[in-house]
Amino acid sequence: MKTLNEYLALPYRMEIVEDREEGGYVVSYPDLPGCLTCGETIESAVENARDAKKAWLEAALEEGVSIPMPDSLEDYSGQFKLRLPRSLHRALAEHSQREGISMNQYCVYLLAKNDALHAG
What we know:
InterPro entries: Arc_rbn_hlx_hlx, HicB-like, Ribbon_hlx_hlx, TA_system_antitoxin, TTHA1013/TTHA0281-like. This protein has helices spanning about 5-10, 40-65, 85-100, 105-120, and strands at about 15-20, 25-30, 35-40.
């Protein structure tokens, strides 16, 4: 079993979301269920998040709760195969050609743009 300091040194991903209704920011660690906090500014939210992570890990260690390892980008190749209708393939190829970029770059742009819209 790892020590508290070993867990604190692991690269747990922090997510920061603006709270548009209440104001301030909500911060969570997706790999540590229920570990979240907030702050009036991003700086205070991040500081509070570090404290929340430490408290979460301390409690888990004291209670013998299994602590998940952080998710890693190493687990993802960055590639997947996608089948699509020929008409969509043609439209994407034509749009990417007009933009002067590869179809791959154009599709990554579209996916990132859509993902950003749904993240908030």
